[in-house]
Request: fold
Amino acid sequence: MGTLGREFVKILFQKRTYVGWAGLLAVPLLMVLALDLSGSRPAPGDGPAFFSRIVGNGLFAPLVAIGALSLFLFPLVASMAGAFPLAGEAEMGTMKTWLSRPLGRGAVLFSKWGVAILYVVVGMVLVGLGGLAAGGVVFGIHPMTTISGTTLSVPAGIGRIVLVNLVILAALLCMVSLALLVSTLTNSSLTAAITAMVIFIVLTILNGFSTFDFMKPYTFTSYDMAFVNLIRDPIFWRPIRDALLVDAATVAGLLAAAWLVFRRKDILT
Amino acid sequence: MATLRLELVKIAHQRRTYVGWIGLVLVPVAVVAAAALEKPRPPDPGDPPFVTHVSANGLLVALSALYALASFLLPIVAAMGGASSVASEAESGTLKTWLTRPVGRTAVLLTKWVSATLYALVGAALVGLVSLAAGAVVFGLHPFVTLSGTTLSVPHALGLIATAYLLVVAGAVCSLTVALFISTLTDSSLTAAMIAIAVFTVLTVLNVFSTFDFMKPYTYSTYRLAFVDLFRSPVYWPPIRDALLDYGVTVGALLLAAWAVFGRKDVLT
Reply:
């Protein structure tokens, strides 16, 4: 844990950290502001999932924000978070110093992975709290109406939103691990982050063609809307279970690959 | 010109250069494979123009690829090119060496900008050539039916497609210049690239909300699909002229800002 703590201190001293968090936090705030200023209720089906419901119930603001962010900006932030801890050390020439400490390479790798996840989780908490606060102030917090038509109490609704965040976090772990794997292969954090993003986009585009449906059950990108099923009553677990299974297998595979590469890597800087 | 050649050699020796290009080229390949294998389906009114009938005409492959290129991939690859230019020299500690050569800082900055632009241009050209080649082999090139219903000869359509690609590259140059500007402010190429991508994404999202319509004429993200108007007969120029004007102002202002920062920057590495 001491290692993870030290890693976290490192990212707190980087400007980029706050740029990422501020950018994420801006989205729920701008969204609520836009809805408040426009004064008209968007047509159902307009904008991201559940968008039109925010006007009646601020409780939907954090849900819409995380849903919309999970399509592009959060994967981007996750790839940045996963790419930098390892390749950044190589860039600054501090990797050797790091490895001279009495720690196994496995521990170094996993603390880098852990800190990237911590970064993403803090971002999610900011988006959730920011959305809840802005939505609550402007539109008020009311019991949540599910897709199935039933009504959930406010605490139960918040519980569902937390679950949504956890499901999306599982998919983001895939992005973090992917960026981490690439960053063991290169010494440039930029290369690692962009490679992870390009893979993400290409997978998303392939998911759009029915010819490539055969690979859909196996790519983590195809479950990007699975979280919607958590807003049913009762929760429709099957797609969520599938998503979590694929995410877990992807993360395990990528991490194992990263460990195999990093364990034997020549550290030159 | 000698400085420019040096920059291009540098780009050619980086692995991420090829990652970016390969990621771009995968798109037309996927489009062709999907269109060749997919059973024809009834057109969906939500589809962008030209994308439904790709298998009827190889020329349409180039246009379908352009949609994916304009909305995500090219801005990302261009941002990478722009960000790596100044900041990655700072990262690898070679910026000082660069500046000891008898070249002014302005020349250094402009060379970086030009070489990054060339990088994006080559990427787009690769996509165009691969999609035309694959489209010609699989579906054949046939006279092109415009959005207005008229038919254009193959060479005429090729000219318009080339113009459309240039227009999209011009849009990506805005992202590139944002990245270049940020990379003069930070010493981390990753930060610069991520901020440029985040700016593009947030602007794209804001363009969707009608509350932010007032800024639409001024943001470069608004015009990313302006190329569609080239395929009317006669060509509908006003949106394209607006796009070029907007790009020109954006790029000019950002370059000026980058120059103002870089001209006085303390170069520590």
In short: Chain A touches chain B through 46 residues (CB under 8 Å). Chain A is about 70% helix and 0% strand. Chain A has one domain: 2-263. The CA atoms of residues 223 and 245 of chain A lie 11 Å apart.
